[in-house]
Amino acid sequence: MRAILMSEAPAPQWHQPVMGAEVLQALTPRPGAIVVDGTLGMGGHGVMILPRLLPNGRLVGIERDQDALELARKRLADFEPQVTLIRENYRQLPTILQDLGIPRVDGLLLDLGMSSLQVDRAERGFSFSREGPLDMRMDRGQEATAEAIVNELAADDLARLLETLGEERFARRIARAIVRAREDRRLTTTTQLARVVAEAVPPTARHGRLHAATRTFQALRMAVNDELGALETLLGHLDAVLSSGGRAVVLTFHSLEDRLVKHAFLSGAREHRWTVLTKKPVRPSPVEVARNPRARSAKLRAIEKR
């Protein structure tokens, strides 16, 4: 989860990023540096990074959610021309840098997962606690939606998706229940799906810390947006896009992302391409977690290019 509301914010859409101080400490932005925020969101980290790049540094902000990008554009307007905002998937970073005439960058930040803008707007379909369409697209220009997956995927394929991306132990029960439910009528809303999932799991699994539909919604969101594919692609480009001494900082929010980042960072370190700066992932402080429970699962990992 990428952001939390600021009590002192000038407008309700402005958010304070998760682990902002820790990100700055790991990224070490400095005057004249070129930094990429590959998951710009509404500019929460960007507004903290940009003052440290002045007077002649540059922030390249990449965001595939048009709504978030427009809010970030307003928030970061005072920093023009030191900021370049691009609507794109961060997996395209090498092409983006080539188009901008930037050979390598001094810093790269990825803050993975959903933004508060996405989860708090019912019409985006990310949350099972609000009635909304089964959408879940971060880029609403793409065709694939959660509704299409839920209503068209075969039971075995659906179960495999829930097991792989949601780490859902009741994946087969849930998949069978979804298939039965859609035979009566197409599943089109978040609350419809949440009810089907809750009724499919054993009664003892309906009253835990996590809502019974949490892992199902996670798996669908990740599938719709190919989140692991994008991350794996970007991790494969790190050596090519970072300058010597450049740093990459990644914030993850669940084990699948963190495992990919951890293994990629350790593999590159063994090959002497970079140094791992975080022997163990940095976690949010108890104060931050108390203020924003959505931050509780965040893990920060960082490397420095040799």
Distance between the termini: 31 Å
Strand order of the largest sheet: 5-4-3-6-7-9-8
Order of helices and strands: EEHEHEHEHEHHHHHHHEHEHE
Oligomer: single chain
How many E-type strands? 9
What structural class do you assign from the helix and strand content?
A: alpha/beta
The stretches of 5 or more residues where confidence is low (pLDDT under 50) are: 3-13
What is Rg?
20 Å
Domain module count: 2
The largest β sheet comes out as: 7 strands, mixed
Please identify which CATH superfamily of the largest domain we are dealing with.
Vaccinia Virus protein VP39
The tally of helices reads 13
User: What CATH first level of the largest domain would be assigned?
Assistant: Alpha Beta
Estimate percent helicity.
40-55%
Shape: globular
- Beta fraction of the residues? 15-25%
Overall mean pLDDT score? 93
